[in-house]
Design a protein that fits this description.
171 residues
Length: 171
């Protein structure tokens, strides 16, 4: 892992707790990870400065906000040169329906996570913007039925080393 940062078990415990509840106070966080508040705050700030914690955001219920369609689009490009890949990636920033975009390997080049208020809006985006984009060869979409799991991006086991394969460095 070329970008991995040297973290100890307390750092991982902090990350696990913040991933589960990013709104807790520093005092509560310190209590949960077993250290006092001042060093806890210093550790959180260090994790932010290192870019391990890249931000905080609220998790919204799309349906309650009138955004009924959640879909994923697998996009294949005609040409996969670095400039073509970068150009398509840059285009995704201009599409409000695209909430996340990943460059992927395999049969497709990009995976787009899309959210729309209704099917017609999503369909219009796919037909009039996405497939009409220069260099787009294929688009396969999958409409979601319901979300069945929603956890943070990293699986932090409780007890023992905080990340599989990472030695506990707290001793």
């Amino acid at each position: 892992m070329k970008d991995a940062i040297d973290l100890d078990s307390i750092d991982f415990a902090i990350l696990r707790e913040l991933q589960d509840d990013g709104r807790m106070t520093n005092v509560e966080l310190a209590s949960r990870v077993g250290i006092s508040a001042p060093p806890c705050l210093r550790r959180v700030r260090r994790l932010e400065d290192l870019g391990v914690i890249s931000g905080y955001r609220a998790i919204l219920d799309t349906g309650k906000l009138g955004q009924e369609i959640v879909a994923f689009c697998l996009v294949g490009l005609h040409h996969q040169s670095d400039p073509e890949l970068k150009a398509f990636a840059a285009l995704t920033a201009n599409w409000p329906l695209v909430r996340e975009a990943w460059m992927v390997s395999g049969e497709s080049d990009f995976l787009l996570h899309c959210v729309a208020p209704d099917f017609r809006t999503f369909q219009t985006f796919v037909l009039e913007e996405l497939t009409a984009t220069e260099n787009v060869d294929t688009v396969r979409s999958a409409l979601t039925i319901r979300k069945v799991k929603d956890k943070g991006l990293i699986a932090f086991p409780t007890g023992g080393p905080a990340v599989p394969g990472t030695p506990d460095q707290s001793t």
